[in-house]
């Protein structure tokens, strides 16, 4: 059974940084487009960043210049480096494998002002 397992969430002050990790089991990682989504209370889940198998990336306008998505194929892991965090970045962050249609369990990010 292929799984995605996130880690790295937590509480941080505004202006701080966090790095989220998503470890993928199985053989999907090397070929699948991977992404990070987030969902705040009362809001729809939204795409934050995505990366394909050759490292091409795209970002939501709200995080451009502050967040960086990357992947380590040797570790089957995708990362989301989040800098200059704002209170509006607070949400549950989910890892997603687009082609495999898999979701992780989510990790909470809380940003205090």
Question: Which helices and strands, and how do they pair?
Answer:
Blueprint: E1 4-7, E2 10-13, E3 18-24, E4 34-39, E5 46-51, E6 57-59, E7 67-72, E8 77-82, E9 91-97, E10 102-103, E11 107-112
Parallel strand pairs: 2-11
Antiparallel strand pairs: 1-3, 3-8, 4-5, 4-9, 5-6, 7-8, 9-10, 9-11
Word description of this protein:
By secondary structure, the protein is mainly β. The chain is built from no helices and eleven strands. Strands 2, 4, 5, 6, 9, 10 and 11 form a seven-stranded mixed sheet that branches. It is globular, with a radius of gyration of 13 Å. The mean pLDDT is 94.
Main structural class: mainly beta
The dominant shape is globular
Main sheet characteristics:
7 strands, mixed
What is the mean pLDDT? 94
- Termini separation: 40 Å
Quote the beta fraction: over 45%
Rg, alpha carbons:
13 Å
Number of strands: 11
Unreliable spans are none
Q: Number of helical runs? A: 0
Helicity level: under 10%
Summarize the helix and strand pattern as letters: EEEEEEEEEEE
């Amino acid at each position: 059974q292929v799984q995605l397992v996130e880690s790295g969430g937590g509480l941080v002050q505004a202006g701080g940084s966090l790095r989220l990790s998503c470890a993928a089991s199985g053989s999907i990682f090397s070929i699948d487009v991977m992404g990070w989504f987030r969902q705040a209370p009362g809001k729809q889940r939204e795409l934050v960043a995505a990366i394909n198998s050759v490292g091409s990336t795209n970002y939501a306008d709200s995080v451009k210049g502050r967040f960086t998505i990357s992947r380590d194929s040797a570790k089957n892991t995708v990362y989301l480096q989040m800098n200059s965090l704002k209170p509006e970045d607070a949400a549950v962050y989910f890892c997603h494998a687009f082609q495999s249609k898999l979701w992780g369990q989510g990790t909470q990010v809380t940003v205090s002002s």
